[in-house]
Every structure is written in C-alpha cells, then in structure tokens.
UniProtKB/TrEMBL annotation:
Transmembrane segments: 33-51, 219-244, 251-271, 283-305
Pfam families: DUF4436 (PF14494)
Recorded superkingdom: Bacteria
Region (Disordered): 1-24
Keyword Transcription regulation among record annotations: no
Signal peptide from the UniProt entry: none
Keyword Transmembrane helix appears in the UniProt entry: yes
Organism ancestry: Bacteria, Pseudomonadati, Pseudomonadota, Alphaproteobacteria, Hyphomicrobiales
Species name: Chelatococcus reniformis
Alphabetical keyword list: Membrane, Transmembrane, Transmembrane helix
Protein name in UniProt: DUF4436 domain-containing protein
Length: 311
C-alpha cells in the first residue's frame, strides 16, 4: 500500500516556475542592452559635438595682407617657427622676397636701397636692404600677451607688429612704399591667425596675431583629463565597496589599482606641448585624481588586512 502511494506521488508532474520569475532575467538583460545602446548613442552624439566645437580637421592656410602683390614695393614672407607658451614668446622668420615678374622667377637680390622698419613690442628696428645685395632673411622673437599657460589647453595669446618700408631718395628724403605680406598661419600644435588693422599711413601695415592651440590638441588634452577622472572613479568604487563589505576581496584587483596610481602621472606626461606642472587643469583634475587613486588603494588594502583569508 505504501509503495503504491509512493509510485502515485512520483507520477505527479513537478510544479513549473512562475512565468514572472522565469522572465525576470530576460527583462534584466533587455534593460541592460537598452542602457548600453543609449550610452553608445550618447557617446557618439557627444563625440560629434566635440568634433564640431574644436574643429579638429582645421588646415592652416597662407594669408595675404597689405597692398596687392603686383603693386607692392616689397614683399615679405612671415613664417612662425617656434612658440614657447611657458615663456610667452613666439619666433617668426621674416624673409624679404622679390615681387613676382611676368617674365619668370627673379633673383633674390635687391634692386634699390630700402629700409624695412619693424616695430614690435616697445621698440623699432631698422633693417637696411642694400642694392645689388642678397635680400635679407631674419628671425625675431615676439612677446605673447593677453594669455597664460595656466589655462592649458584652452590658453590663447596675442601679439602685434607694425611694418613699413621706405626708399632712400636724394638729399636723404624718404618715400614710403606699399607693402605686401604673406603669412603661414600654422605651426606644430598651434594656429596663428593674423588680422590686419587700419594704420595711420595706408602704405604701412599693422598686423595682430591670435595664437591658440589646434582643435586636435584641445580635444586630446581634454580626453586625457577625462580619462583621469574615469580611472579615479573606478578605483574609488572598487576600494569603497570592498572596504564597506558590499563586495568580496579579490587579490587580483590590487595590481590593477596599483597600476592606476602610476598610470595617472603617465597620462599627465603624455599631454601635447608638455605644460608645466601646476596649471589649472592639474588643480581641477590631476592632483585630486592621484590622491583619489591612492586613497582607493589604501581602502582596499585596509579591507584585505581586516578581512582577508588566513593561511
């Protein structure tokens, strides 16, 4: 009798799990998938906005200033060769070139006595150009104003120069000649944008330079600092959750967190332009990020000392 009862009980179908309980993991995976898609879309939109804001594809051009080149008594070519944002100086190579000739290239030799006046900062420099002598080429330093390296990577500066050329006449008289200037508006890591201001004498030339970092440098530097923030938040999350007891201690995370402590200075040293330590971005991001990574590692080690497995 008892065996028949056991056989009857064994033949009864097992109770199935409630549909809601079976669908719960699927719904959780669906929510996570939708969240991942939304995050990727948000990152793509943000990346597009950043590209539009910083103009990473900007290409330097050769700007033209002053009188038309076929009417100029002298043609100058300005080429920025070095910018030291720490010392706030810009080095420009100034080349005197002959005006173009319809018959073909002309020799780089002066045909008359001229004087090029270069007014920069607080002094005026007179550069003689002698007839039948090679046209001069010189390099001068210009002070960068209205800016500071502390605002890296969005720092910007300005500079100015006043140019004029005169021809020596009989009896020591001078006659101003129209001037044409060609300027290359790019240098490694910087964009040098020139603008012409109205001078007192229309044959003179007033140029102002706006110096700023390229969009690629700005974008990369901001990305590096954002990576510092993300790494620090990850380290603090791991250290805090393990210290409180919400997550178990995994010894493999010690190496990862220790690597974060040394990865942050490496990221800081990878910034283009090698800005000096102590700029405003360091105060806002790098310093506290390094401290946060060390604190997170300390929390993890403290939890391991207190609750780690014994031998």
């Amino acid at each position: 009798m008892e065996s028949a009862t056991r056989e009857a009980a064994s033949e009864e179908p097992e109770e199935e799990a409630p549909p809601a309980a079976a669908d719960k993991p699927a719904r959780r995976r669906l929510r996570r998938g939708l969240l991942l898609v939304a995050l990727l879309v948000l990152c793509a939109v943000g990346y597009g906005l950043v590209l539009q804001r910083f103009d990473i594809s900007e290409v330097p051009i050769e700007a033209q200033f002053g009188a038309p080149i076929d009417e100029a008594g002298l043609v100058l070519s300005l080429l920025p060769v070095a910018i030291d944002s720490t010392q706030e100086t810009m080095q420009i190579r100034i080349s005197v070139t002959p005006p173009p000739s319809p018959s073909g290239p002309r020799a780089a030799i002066a045909t008359r006595d001229l004087t090029l006046r270069l007014h920069r900062d607080t002094f005026v420099e007179h550069i003689p150009i002698r007839a039948q002598q090679p046209l001069p080429e010189l390099t001068r330093n210009f002070d960068l104003n209205d800016g500071s390296i502390r605002f890296y990577p969005v720092d910007r500066f300005s500079a100015s120069v006043h140019l004029s050329v005169v021809e020596k006449g009989p009896g020591g008289s001078e006659r101003a000649l129209p001037l044409h200037v060609k300027m290359w508006e790019g240098i490694l890591g910087f964009t040098v944008h020139g603008e012409q201001a109205a001078p007192i004498d229309p044959r003179d030339l007033n140029l102002s330079f706006s110096v700023r970092r390229t969009g690629a440098v700005k974008f990369f530097s901001i990305t590096i600092y954002a990576a510092m923030v993300v790494l620090t938040l990850c380290a603090l999350s791991i250290g805090s959750l393990v210290f409180i007891g919400f997550r178990k201690i995994e010894a493999t995370l010690v190496g990862a967190m220790g690597a974060m402590v040394f990865a942050l200075p490496a990221l800081r040293n990878a910034l283009p332009g090698a800005p000096p330590l102590g700029i405003r971005a360091d105060v806002l991001v790098f310093f506290w990020a390094e401290i946060g990574a060390v604190v997170a590692l300390s929390l993890f080690i403290a939890a391991w000392v207190r609750r780690g497995s014994r031998p």
